[in-house]
Amino acid sequence: MSWVYLLFAGISEIVWSTAMKLSNGFSKIGWAIITVVGLITSMLCLLQAVKHLSFSLAYPIWTGIGAVGSVIVGVALFHDKFSNATWFFVVLLIIAIIGIKITAGE
């Protein structure tokens, strides 16, 4: 169940960071509320995950899910453009997240 919490924490990280961008500096109250709710949800899920997973495992996976997800959202919703070199490093980040999970032994 800890892995489910960690996955949901990472997804919530993507939600709140996207909503923060859409809130236009917190001037759009609906998006600002989603930002705060997403942030709280992300933290609470991370808290549940680290009850049974080591922090040194959970935290980099959580931030990695958020980082990769935010890149994907940036490209899909905000039309961010990245070079092939940047995509190479995003792929390396995904490989690193998987590697941390596989080698941590939890």
From TrEMBL:
Iron keyword on record: no
Q: What does the UniProt entry say about where the protein is found? A: Cell membrane
Query: Which GO CC annotations does the UniProt entry carry?
Result: plasma membrane
Subcellular location, principal: membrane
> Could you tell me which SUPFAM superfamilies the record lists for this protein?
Multidrug resistance efflux transporter EmrE
Give me the segments passing through the membrane.
29-50, 57-79, 85-104
User: InterPro entries of this UniProt entry?
Assistant: EmrE-like (IPR037185), Small_drug/metabolite_transptr (IPR000390), Small_multidrug_res (IPR045324)
Lipid bilayer topology: Multi-pass membrane protein
Q: Does the keyword Phosphoprotein apply?
A: no
GO MF terms, alphabetically ordered: transmembrane transporter activity
- Into which family does the record put it? Belongs to the drug/metabolite transporter (DMT) superfamily. Small multidrug resistance (SMR) (TC 2.A.7.1) family.
Q: Which named protein is this?
A: Multidrug efflux SMR transporter
Q: Which organism is it from?
A: Leuconostoc litchii
